[in-house]
Amino acid sequence: MTTVTVGIGPVSPEDVLRVAREGAAVELSQESLDAMAATRAHIRALADSPDPVYGVSTGFGALATRHIPTELRKQLQRSLIRSHAAGSGPEVEREVIRGLMLLRLSTLATGRTGVRPEVAQTYAALLTAGITPVVHEYGSLGCSGDLAPLAHCALAVIGEGTVRTADDALVPAAQALAAAGITPVVLEEKEGLALINGTDGMLGMLVMACHDLRGLLTLADITAAMTVEGLLGTDRVFAADLQALRPQPGQAVAAANMARLLDGSPIVASHRNDTAVVQDAYSLRCAPIVAGAARDTVAHAEAVAGYELASAVDNPVITLDGRVESNGNFHGAPVAYVLDFLAIVAADVASMSERRTDRFLDKARNHGLNPFLADDPGVDSGHMIAQYTQAAIVSELKRLAAPSSVDSIPSSAMQEDHVSMGWSAARKLRRAIDGLTRVLAIEALTAARAIDLRAPLHPAAATGAVRDLIRSRVEGPGTDRYLAPEIEAVVELAASGALVGAAERVAGDLA
User: Which GO terms describe its molecular function (predicted)?
Assistant: First the structure.
């Protein structure tokens, strides 16, 4: 089993993916254990002070004016976790929860939160054992951290609530911890607060979304190239000197990908000197511009994620010189904004893909192919309804592109009077990425059919490899068949990265 070491520095996006998706074990560096032990001494000193310190000797949020006597402080921290574990709705995916827990652990390991080393070690032990707390869809406003989701995780650490075991059994947390030999934590001053005051849920989903979108944007270049072939389009517009006239970095990458994918295409060569069509439609000709702008947006989101991965988000926080200071770093605005921006990207790339697919189905625009690519039009409907499915998904993606971050509902008796809704932005982005995957898969399926119908002309080697992989799962053109399983088979190839891999084995790595 791969092991990820968490230290006082930031975890990498790659480590987030290893822990969240691959089930990697987690350990803490000695440096981080020493840092936590050192700063815990500050909290113990403050706990004995008569002066009120937020989260140590006071209540929380709008109740921060209440001084809590020493004998009630363990109850204070336990009550905080129990009361804030108030999520509702469907269970959140295991990978999201594991990513969230790793990122909270990363902040604990900086030593800036004041928790004891054993608290962090218990988080690492749960991750290594594959014990995943049950977290629910609704409950976070994305400010004061992802409070409810993080509280459900902390609830498991203290041996309460419900978890999923490594083999996905739903059991009480106390039972799962006992079976794994993990002792539940008894929280002391400040520790409950430190476990819930971060943007870890939305950040983990942002890291995974950026990774997924990188692959899907490469796939969008592949499906666009296949469509250019199938619709007898031109590759001349993807020339490097034309792209250099508008030096957007992502645009140059997308155009270079498409040029490489179409290199040596007999289909493209067959009509290179045809002057009947002066220029292709926007959805073909402008594909690198849209996919390129999407790449640049992902790059910006990755930069924001990098800043967040290097952050120690808690309130109050212990500074490097030993002060305990309240702050607003838990506000999720930086993450929420880019999550919303990426949902716009997913919707627009999918919208262009759907328009390309639609051109295949219209005999007035598909340059000599049968209506709807049907074997016997009228008797057969071909891919008519596959485009309906794309259209339904694209319509949903447009709704999901409406930003969450412009909304704010005050909470905690107006103490928390502006919130980011970043968790909601992340949740809808995950649905948008799934939708984009499906739309691109349908374009690939349709383009492969059109390329086959151009026989005896052959596609380029790279696009042909993608077509061949699809043919390993889906039969070629013919009379109508049950279409849903064929679509789902190509969706699986798209989501796994297999379609991109097929192209790259011929064309080399695509950016």
Answer: histidine ammonia-lyase activity
CA dihedral 422→159→161→408, nearest 10 degrees, is: -20
Report d(CA 128, CA 505) in Å as an integer.
35
Residue of 54, 138, 282, 388 marked active site: 54
**What pLDDT does 316 receive?**
87
**Residue tagged 């625009």 (tokens):** 365
Beta carbons of 454 and 226 less than 8 angstroms apart? no
Neighbours of 498 (CB within 10 A): 16
Residue 320: name the closest of 33, 112, 128, 19 by CA: 112
Instruction: Determine the 3-state secondary structure of 280 from DSSP.
Output: coil
List Cβ neighbours of 436 (8 Å cut-off, separation of 6 or more). Answer: 213, 216, 346, 349, 350, 397
Neighbours of 276 (CB within 10 A): 6
Low-confidence ranges of the chain (pLDDT < 50): none
Cβ neighbors of 105 (< 8 A, separation 6 or more) are 6, 26, 28, 120, 123, 124, 127
- pLDDT for res 276: 65
Question: Residue 275: its pLDDT value, please?
Answer: 65
Q: What is residue 465's three-state secondary structure?
A: helix
Radius of gyration of the chain (CA): 26
Q: Residue 365: beta bridge partners?
A: none
**C-alpha distances in Å from residue 286, one per residue of 64, 213, 255, 463:** 56, 19, 9, 19
Helix (H, G, I), strand (E, B) or coil at 217: helix
Q: Which two tokens stand for residue 210?
A: 């950026």
Domains plus CATH for the chain?
A: 4-197 (1.10.275.10), 205-313+345-407+418-507 (1.20.200.10)
482 catalytically annotated: no
Residue for token pair 């039009």:
377
